[in-house]
Amino acid sequence: MNDKYTETVGLFKALADTHRLMIVDMLSCGELCACKILEKFNITQPTLSHHMKILCDCGLVNGRKEGKWMYYSLNGEKVQEFKNFLYAITIDKDDCICKEGECNCGKK
């Protein structure tokens, strides 16, 4: 299977959760302290840490520690790569995988 699909599936898995989608939306406005993110949800700090680990591990979110606080921001480069991938798989193009090989059904 093509590496671009394998590499991107982790992003889809990370985003397949309501809380994580909402966190990404919050971070679209800029860097936030974990405490500010936690204020928006009815979850525990360990649960937030779990969500943030998933978002950081897939590369979509950057985390940095300042004193005892964690601050999170979107990884703009990874966000753009994800947008480009989603665009590329949703348009008709000459190198689409549907055009590999021949179909005997008579359809495109």
Automatic annotation (TrEMBL):
Gene3D superfamilies documented for this protein: Winged helix-like DNA-binding domain superfamily/Winged helix DNA-binding domain
Stored InterPro entries: ArsR-like_HTH, HTH_ArsR_DNA-bd_dom, HTH_MetalResp_TranReg, WH-like_DNA-bd_sf, WH_DNA-bd_sf
Keywords attached to this entry: DNA-binding, Transcription, Transcription regulation
Record-linked PROSITE patterns: HTH_ARSR_2 (PS50987)
Pfam families linked: HTH_5 (PF01022)
Signal peptide limits: none
Database matches in SMART domains: HTH_ARSR
Species: Kineothrix alysoides
HTH arsR-type domain residues: 1-94
Protein name as it appears in the record: ArsR family transcriptional regulator
Single GO MF annotation: DNA binding
Top-level taxon of the source organism: Bacteria
